[in-house]
Amino acid sequence: MAAFSEDPPKYAALHWDGKMLRDVLGSDPGTTSETLAVLVSGPPAYPEGKLLGVPVIDSSTGTAQAEASMDLLEAWGLTGVITALVFDTTASNSGVHRGAAKLLEQQLDRKVFYLACRHHILEVLVGAVWENLFGKIKSPENPWFKHFKDVWTDPTTDNPTTLSIRQKWLNKKKKECKEKTTGNPEVGEAS
Fold this sequence. Notes:
By secondary structure, the protein is an alpha/beta fold.
């Protein structure tokens, strides 16, 4: 801990993510605990990141995550170098009043960049587009995946093939999506 604390990055981003993990070392092996992986990244010495700790927390609330993250920042002497917060877009992280990011910003007593993970943002966008194109799925088995499974019967790894999508079908779906999102199927068409 000392070497990192003596030579911290000049500027760093704080990353955290909560996970339920099985307690294999505690007093009750086999039970699960809410844990929080906390790391910082910052050039030049730590562009890939430095794990600060993985504390067990009482709950996955924004308050619990902010407290655990701040405890680690203080223990490592890094409260003065944090310029950005990197987190997934769950309410416990991104909530405007009690989200971990908001609470950490208040505890740091300065403005910081919020860098919500693009994976989670794109997941929401892709989900909305999928629902617009194919409708809301009500069953546990997605009929489109079942269709692909029926059409693509042998996805072997020793002789890979690609599943072709017919251009006519793709154009129809693009047009439907444009109609649903803009009300005009001609938006974005080349003249």
